[in-house]
Design goal:
Blueprint lengths: L2 H10 L5 H10 L3 E5 L3 H9 L4 E4 L3 H4 L11 H14 L4 E5 L9 H15 L3 E5 L5 H9 L4 E6 L5 H4 L8 H13 L4 E5 L3 H10 L4 E4 L7 E5 H4 L17 H17 L12
Parallel strand pairs: 1-2, 1-8, 2-3, 3-4, 4-5, 5-6, 6-7, 7-8
């Protein structure tokens, strides 16, 4: 199937919903989620048939070159979320609630999340937090806003956690995930936690777990588009598998174009109008 055929098929299928994500878990079908930030990557992810597309606050690092996700603002998440939502016609689009909105009370979180859904056209928000944010998740769900939880390594809390490192407190991790599920989250991301802990949490919850650096036993997996296609510039985490070397391909293409320009080989007859 060609990329064009894939896009045609994706656009003809109905939108994935939170109920479909739950049904996939119940059927034992692994769930796929890719992080994308713009129109091209959103279109590519949707055409590939992934279940969910996440517009992550990692946009601050991957796209803007910051050293953490903390600088991402609500306005930036809405901007990128709207672009990706227009690009995606089938997958469930989830947008990160940026720091520190989940810590400012239920009302503030609802106002921010409502803006995200209204102004982007996305279908859910993702919220990093511990059991202490369970009331915020419950408030959002009560307001009709689907929520994906996120426990383990929480990039928004990187300074408190002492860096981007494995989280090993099994009891705390299980309590945080259980609290998100009990509050009404439809799924929960498990980031950078030991495989055995992730497996036990996955078995204990009725909602799907989406792993990133959490081993193969989660109900699904998520990676950043730029990481898996080899477009990242910084050191890539060990849990990433690179399926292409897009940086090398693009660098070769740019060098070839520059050489053709300097040799007056571009534009040639085929690219010359009139």
């Amino acid at each position: 199937m060609t990329p064009a055929d894939s896009e045609s098929v994706a656009s003809s299928l109905r939108r994935v919903t939170v109920h479909d994500v739950a049904a996939a878990r119940a059927a034992g079908r692994p769930i796929s989620m890719v992080t994308a930030y713009d129109w091209p990557t959103g279109r590519l992810a949707d055409a590939a048939g992934v279940d969910c597309v996440l517009v992550g606050d990692s946009v601050a690092m991957v796209v803007a070159g910051r050293d953490s996700t903390i600088p991402a603002t609500l306005e930036q998440m809405i901007y990128h979320g709207e672009i990706v939502s227009r690009a995606v016609s089938r997958a469930l689009v989830v947008v990160d609630l940026p720091f520190p909105l989940q810590h400012l009370g239920v009302r503030s979180a609802i106002k921010a999340a409502a803006r995200i859904l209204k102004e982007t056209g996305s279908q859910a928000v993702k919220l990093e937090g511990t059991a202490g944010q369970a009331d915020v998740i419950a408030g959002l769900v009560e307001a009709g806003i689907p929520v994906m939880g996120h426990v383990g390594l929480r990039p928004q809390a990187v300074h408190q956690l002492g860096g981007y490192r494995m989280q090993r407190d099994a009891e705390r991790l299980a309590a945080d995930a259980a609290a998100a599920a009990a509050a009404g989250a439809f799924a929960v991301v498990l980031e950078c936690i030991p495989r055995q802990v992730a497996a036990e949490i996955t078995q204990s919850l009725s909602i799907p777990t989406i792993g990133i650096g959490a081993g193969p036993d989660c109900a699904g997996q998520v990676l950043v588009m730029h990481d898996l296609v080899g477009l990242s510039f910084d050191r890539v985490p060990r849990f990433v598998r690179r399926y292409a070397d897009s940086r090398a391909t693009m660098a070769t293409a740019l060098a070839a174009w520059k050489a053709d320009v300097e040799a007056r080989l571009f534009p040639g007859p085929a690219e010359t109008l009139g």
